[in-house]
Amino acid sequence: xxxxxxxxxxxxxVERTYEMDGxxxxxxxxxxxxxxxxxxxxxxxxxxxxxxKVGMYAEGGVAREINAWGIILADLVQHLTDALSGEGFGxxxxxxxxLVDAFNEEISAPTSxxxxxxxxxxx
Length: 123
Hints:
Blueprint: E1 6-11, E2 17-22, H1 27-31, E3 39-44, E4 47-54, H2 62-86, H3 92-108, E5 120-121
Parallel strand pairs: 4-5
Antiparallel strand pairs: 1-2, 3-4
Helix pairs in contact: 2-3
């Protein structure tokens, strides 16, 4: 695999290599030999597709796992507001409020069905 920004080469099988529009791995994750990827999110076949690693915090019980994912999602939203603000879409505070409102709306009235299996459990 090529981990630079832009195209991502993925060997699907022995006969074919597909070029995918993947994101760069953050430099700190490349440097840290103990880095762990927690989630991938793709838009494919006209829908959202995710791979999620769950269970990293489960030894402390379900409450610890849920709390950890709440922190991860909140941190991700903060990174998103930073990126959107940096692109001139508005102030971080206004963007954060809009994203939280959109999140709550989607949770209460989903715009599409969600299907899928279990996340990738930590072994």
